[in-house]
Specification:
single chain
């Protein structure tokens, strides 16, 4: 598979809701048309294939590029210890947007039943109070105040927003509540950071 195709698909999943279409006059890579980017037109086989990529990626701990400040030897830890929820996919923000894609595919009911079950199991194992408390602890450390600012933070907030849009699913509501403490911290940091850019 060409490496650019998954990126285009992830972008399409991010940017299109079920009611939106990319217009024909927008610039798209060769071989893609606007109809193929409409979330209502993705078939189950394609959705399952994209979910399989994310399911494999978000739990693949190595190779990994932590991009972090290690204040002292106590911070020299494996990715899974540093980030109990978002340790895979080479770096933190990629793990976050892998989780986002899984949530989106589930929320839009695009996955086959077997893949949907495995996706729910993975999300329940990763997006819970225990793992998210570990993520929050990492971000609360003074030397990690700017970790993944702003790109990773934006993906994290997009994941929160995706779960917020999903009503009536008790598991999704549990995942949403587990994400809220880190969301609150990141929103406060964004509010503090943005005025400094002017």
């Amino acid at each position: 598979m060409r490496p650019v195709l998954p990126a285009v698909v992830v972008f399409a999943l991010y940017s299109c809701t079920s009611a939106e279409l990319v217009t024909a006059d927008e610039s798209l890579p060769s071989g893609l048309d606007a109809a193929n980017l409409n979330m209502t037109s993705i078939n189950q086989a394609s959705a399952d294939a994209f979910a399989e990529l994310a399911l494999a990626g978000v739990v693949r701990e190595f190779p990994n590029k932590p991009s972090e400040v290690q204040a002292d030897a106590t911070w020299a830890r494996t990715p899974r210890v540093m980030h109990p929820a978002f340790y895979g996919s080479f770096d933190w923000h990629s793990a976050v947007h892998g989780h986002w894609m899984l949530v989106r595919l589930l929320r839009l009911d695009l996955l086959g039943s077997e893949v949907a079950v495995r996706t729910r199991e993975l999300l329940s194992a990763g997006l819970n109070e225990t793992t998210m408390a570990g993520e929050l602890l990492y971000f609360e450390a003074a030397h990690n105040k700017s970790f993944e600012r702003m790109y990773g933070w934006a993906w994290y907030l997009r994941l929160c927003a995706e779960l917020e849009e999903w009503g009536g699913d008790s598991e999704a509501e549990g995942w949403r509540q587990a994400l809220r403490p880190l969301e609150d911290l990141l929103v406060a940091r964004i509010v503090d950071y943005l005025p400094k850019l002017t």
